[in-house]
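Q: Please design a sequence for this.
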C-alpha cells in the first residue's frame, strides 16, 4: 500500500534541468520547419510521417558533438526501420488485433535497445509513440516509399538541427559536463558538519566519471582549443572527496570559500569564458598523464600539454557491450522488455474490446509506465493518468483556437512541444499535461475529428494503459535485479580490496592508484544503481541492505584515502596562474569556422 509520502514524492515538482532549452528549441525548430513546409504545400495531413523522424531532434543533447553525430544517426536509423515495420504492417493488414501485437513487439524492442545502448532522455518512448501511431494509419503498399521518404527527410533535418550548435560552441557539452562536476563538488563542500554525505559523495563520483567520459568522447581538436584545462578542473573537483566526512565547525568558512570557487569556475565553463590553468602536484600531474591512454608521455607538471587522448573504442566493441547488456546471461533488461510486450499488447487488446478504434494511445501509455522497477512504474502510472486528465482539459479549452485555422493548430502544437520539454525534468506528470494536447493536435492535422469522441477515447486508453501496465509489472516479476545487486556487491568488494592494497603501498600515486580509484568509483556507481533498482522491485528475495551500506561507506573512505595520498596544492593562494592556458584563454567562438 502506497503511503502519503510516496504519493507526494511521485507528484513532487523539482528544479528545471540545466539544458532543458536545448531539446526544446531543437524540437520546435525541426517540427516548425517541417510543418510549415507541409502547410505551404497544402499537405499537412502528412505531418505524422515527417514528425516521426523530426522528433529525433530531442536526443543526444548531453553528448559531445563527435559522439552526438553517431548516436543521433543510430537513433534516427532505428526510428526509420521501426516506422518502416509499422507502415508495412498497416499496409498488409487492417486487423487491429494484429496491429496491436506488432506495436507491442516494437515497443519492447525499443525499450530493450535504448536501455542496452544507454540512450539518454527521452529514451524509447518517443520512438514508440510515433511507431504505434503509424501502425494504425491505413496504408497502401504504394504509399510506403513516399511516406518513408518523408520520415527520412524529417530525420535528416533533426540530425542537422541537433548538430548545428557545434558551429557556435563546438565544445559546449564538454564544458557543461565539467561544470556539473564542479557544482557537485560545491554541494559536497557545503555539506553541514556531521551531516551524512554519502549521497553527495556518490553524486560527485558520478559527475566526475560522466565528465571524463564526455572529454574522452570529444574531438581531438579540443586539445588545440582547450588544452587540458578541463581535466585539471576535474582533478580539483575530485579532491573534494578527500575532505573528511564530518568537518569541524572551524573549517566551515573555508569549506564555503572552496565551494564558491568551484561554483565560479562552473559559471565560467557554462558561459564560454576562458579557463584557468590550475597548478597540480606531481601526483596529480602523473594521474593526468595516465588519463590519456595511448598518448606519448605528458608534459612536466605546470607545462602546457599538447598530447591528445588515445583512439575511441571502435563501434563494434560498443555494439557488443550493448548486446551483452541486453541479451547476456542474467540480463535485468529482458524481464523489462517482456513486461513491455505483455503490457502493451494487453492494453491495446482491452482498449479494442472497449470500443476504441485506434488504440495506439493505450499501447503508448502502457509503454510509458514500465520503468526500472515496480515502485517507479506505479509512480509513472499515477503521473501519466494525472497529466493526461489535465492535458485533456487543456486540449478541450484550446479547441476553439485550434479549429480557427491550420496555422493556429501548428502554433499550439509547437507551444505544447516546448512546454513538454521545459517541464519534463521537473516532473513527468507536468510534462504530460503538454504532451497530451500536442499528440491530439497531431491527429487533427489529417482532418478534424469529433472532440467528444477524441477526448473520451484518449481518457479510456489512458486508464486502460496505466492499469494493464501495472498489472504486467505484478505478473512479470524481475528477480534479476537482486542477482544484479549481488554481482555489483561482489564487484565493489573486490575493487575495495584492490584499493586497500593501493592505499597500503609505499607510493599510492600515479597510474596504479588511478586504476584502483577508477575501478572503485565504477564499482561504487554500479552498486548504487543496482541497489536502487532492486529496492524498488516487488516479490524479490531479501536484499543485503546492511552489507551494501557498509560497502559503500568503506568505498568512500578508501576513495578519500587515495585522493589524500596524492596531495593538493593550496587552494586559497596561488591557485591560478596569471596567464590562462594558451588554448583555454580564447573563447570557443574564435575557433569556429
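A: Design:
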Amino acid at each position: 500500500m502506497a503511503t502519503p509520502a510516496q504519493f507526494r514524492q511521485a507528484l513532487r515538482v523539482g528544479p528545471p534541468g540545466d539544458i532543458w532549452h536545448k531539446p526544446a528549441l531543437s524540437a520546435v525548430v525541426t517540427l516548425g520547419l517541417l510543418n510549415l513546409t507541409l502547410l505551404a504545400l497544402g499537405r499537412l495531413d502528412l505531418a505524422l510521417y515527417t514528425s516521426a523522424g523530426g522528433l529525433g531532434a530531442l536526443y543526444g543533447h548531453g553528448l559531445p558533438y563527435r559522439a552526438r553525430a553517431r548516436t543521433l544517426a543510430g537513433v534516427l536509423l532505428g526510428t526509420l526501420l521501426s516506422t518502416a515495420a509499422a507502415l508495412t504492417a498497416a499496409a498488409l493488414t487492417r486487423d487491429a488485433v494484429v496491429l496491436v501485437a506488432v506495436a507491442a513487439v516494437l515497443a519492447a524492442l525499443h525499450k530493450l535497445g535504448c536501455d542496452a545502448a544507454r540512450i539518454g532522455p527521452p529514451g524509447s518512448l518517443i520512438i514508440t509513440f510515433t511507431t504505434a501511431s503509424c501502425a494504425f494509419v491505413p496504408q497502401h503498399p504504394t504509399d510506403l516509399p513516399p511516406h518513408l521518404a518523408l520520415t527520412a527527410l524529417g530525420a535528416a533535418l533533426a540530425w542537422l538541427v541537433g548538430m548545428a550548435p557545434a558551429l557556435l560552441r563546438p565544445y559546449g557539452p564538454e564544458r557543461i559536463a565539467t561544470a556539473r562536476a564542479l557544482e557537485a563538488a560545491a554541494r559536497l563542500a557545503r555539506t553541514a558538519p556531521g551531516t551524512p554525505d554519502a549521497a553527495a559523495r556518490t553524486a560527485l563520483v558520478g559527475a566526475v566519471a560522466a565528465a571524463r567520459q564526455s572529454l574522452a568522447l570529444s574531438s581531438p581538436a579540443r586539445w588545440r582549443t582547450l588544452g587540458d584545462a578541463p581535466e585539471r578542473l576535474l582533478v580539483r573537483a575530485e579532491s573534494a572527496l578527500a575532505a573528511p566526512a564530518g568537518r569541524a565547525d572551524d573549517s566551515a568558512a573555508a569549506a564555503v570559500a572552496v565551494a564558491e570557487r568551484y561554483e565560479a569556475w562552473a559559471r565560467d565553463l557554462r558561459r564560454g569564458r576562458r579557463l584557468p590553468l590550475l597548478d597540480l602536484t606531481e601526483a596529480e600531474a602523473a594521474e593526468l598523464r595516465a588519463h590519456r591512454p595511448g598518448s606519448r608521455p605528458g608534459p612536466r607538471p605546470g607545462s602546457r600539454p599538447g598530447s591528445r587522448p588515445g583512439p575511441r573504442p571502435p563501434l563494434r566493441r560498443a555494439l557488443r557491450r550493448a548486446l551483452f547488456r541486453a541479451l547476456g546471461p542474467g540480463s535485468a533488461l529482458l524481464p523489462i522488455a517482456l513486461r513491455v510486450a505483455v503490457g502493451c499488447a494487453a492494453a491495446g487488446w482491452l482498449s479494442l474490446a472497449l470500443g476504441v478504434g485506434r488504440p495506439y494511445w493505450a499501447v503508448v501509455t502502457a509503454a510509458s509506465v514500465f520503468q526500472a522497477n515496480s515502485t517507479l512504474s506505479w509512480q509513472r502510472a499515477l503521473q501519466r493518468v494525472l497529466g493526461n486528465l489535465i492535458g485533456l482539459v487543456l486540449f478541450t479549452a484550446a479547441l476553439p483556437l485550434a479549429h480557427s485555422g491550420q496555422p493556429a493548430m501548428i502554433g499550439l502544437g509547437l507551444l505544447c512541444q516546448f512546454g513538454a520539454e521545459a517541464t519534463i525534468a521537473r516532473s513527468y506528470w507536468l510534462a504530460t499535461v503538454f504532451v497530451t494536447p500536442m499528440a491530439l493536435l497531431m491527429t487533427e492535422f489529417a482532418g478534424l475529428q469529433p472532440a467528444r469522441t477524441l477526448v473520451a477515447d484518449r481518457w479510456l486508453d489512458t486508464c486502460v494503459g496505466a492499469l494493464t501496465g501495472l498489472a504486467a509489472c505484478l505478473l512479470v516479476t524481475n528477480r534479476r535485479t537482486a542477482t544484479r545487486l549481488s554481482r555489483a556487491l561482489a564487484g565493489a568488494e573486490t575493487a575495495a580490496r584492490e584499493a586497500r592494497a593501493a592505499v597500503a603501498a609505499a607510493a599510492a600515486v600515479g597510474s596504479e592508484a588511478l586504476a584502483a580509484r577508477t575501478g572503485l568509483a565504477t564499482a561504487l556507481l554500479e552498486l548504487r544503481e543496482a541497489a536502487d533498482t532492486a529496492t524498488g522491485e516487488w516479490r524479490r528475495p531479501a536484499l543485503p541492505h546492511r552489507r551494501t551500506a557498509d560497502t559503500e561507506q568503506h568505498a568512500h573512505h578508501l576513495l578519500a584515502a587515495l585522493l589524500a595520498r596524492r596531495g593538493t596544492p593550496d587552494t586559497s593562494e596561488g591557485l591560478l596562474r596569471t596567464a590562462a592556458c594558451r588554448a583555454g584563454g580564447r573563447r570557443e567562438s574564435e575557433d569556429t569556422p
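Q: Thanks. Anything notable?
A: DSSP finds 23 helices and no strands in the chain. The mean pLDDT is 84.
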